[in-house]
Amino acid sequence: MMPNDAGRWPTDEFARMGDAFTDYLSPHNVQLKVMSKEVLRRKHPWGYILAATIIVGIALIIWAWGISDILRYGAIALLIAGFAYVFPIYSKKSKLLREALDAVDHYIHHDIMRVEWTNPLESDPELLVRFQAIGAFGSFDDVKHIHSYLPEAHETSDAVFDPVFTHTRLTRTEVETYTDSQGRTKTRTKTVEVFHGIIFDIPFPDGAGDARTIISTKRIGRPAAPFDRRVNGKPIKMDSIKPASLEFQKLYKVKCDDEMIGHHILDPDRVMRFINMHHDLRAEFGRGMDIIMLITDGRAWVGIETGALQGITQSAGKIEKLAPGLTKFARQLSARHIIASHLKLPQSPSFPWQHNKPKS
To answer: Domain residue spans in the chain?
Structure first.
C-alpha cells in the first residue's frame, strides 16, 4: 500500500458524497415525512377485498354449477353484485393513493434529486458503437434498456452526449449444442449478458493529441473506428507499459501508442489515484466491477460494469426507509463526478449536493 499523501489514502469518495447528500437532504425531511404519512393514510385493503370477492364468487359458481340452475344463477348474480359494489370503491381509493405516490415521486425527482433521463440513441444513434470500439463490451444483439441521466434544465456541454452518464444493459443470443440424458444431440438458445453498467466521456487534458492510452481491469483489445489509428494503412501497434507500483499492476492493464505520454498520464500521483478509485468503485458496485478507460484527443472514454443501479421510482414509505435509497442513488449518480475528483480532472458539479461538503 502506498503511504499517506496529505490524507488522501485511503479515501472513500462515495461515502463522502453520501454524507454530503445527507446534509443536503436534511431540509427536505419534514416535507417528505408529511407526504409519506399521506401515502400511508391513503393505503387501503380494497385490492385484497376485490380479489377475495372474485375468488369467492367463482368458487360459489363452481360449487353451484352441478346442483341447480337457481343456485348457479344466484352465485353469478352474487359475483356481479359484489364486483359492482367493491370495484368503484377500490378504483376511487386507488386513484387517491396513486395521486399521493405521484406527488412523492415528483417531489423526489424534481425538488430533491433534480434528475431526468432520456433515451440517448434518439439523438446519438452511434453512441454504443463508440463505446464498443474502445472495448467496453463485445458484440450484442439486444439493448434491454438504455437511459442517460442528466440534471434537470441542464445546459448542453461539449460532451458528445449528456454529461452525467448513460446506464445500459446489453445482451446477445447464442445457440449452443448439448447432449441430453438419452445421448441425443440437441440445440438450445441462451441469452448472454454482454454489458450492464455505465458509459460516459470526460475531459482529460493530459491526454491531448491523437495518441491512445488504454487503462483497464480486463483484457485490452485493439480499438476500432473512430479510435483506430493507422500509418500508411497499417494499424499502429499499442505496447504494454507497467508503472512502478505492484498494487497498480495487480488491478490494471495498460497499453498505449506512445510510452512517454502513457507514463506522463500515469505519473506516481495519478497511479495512486487510480488505485484509490478502484477501491471506491469496487466498494460501491461490488466485486464484479470492471472499468476500461481510453484516453485520446483530450478526453477519456469510460465504461464501467456496475450492474443494476439503485431505483427511486415509487419509493414512498417511512422517511427512515426512503433516505437510504435516495442516498445510495445520489452516490451512484455522482460516479462521474467522483472519478473526475479522484483523477484530478476538470469538472463542474451536476447536482446540488455535489457543491456540499459534509459536516465534520
So the answer is: 43-113, 116-170+197-355
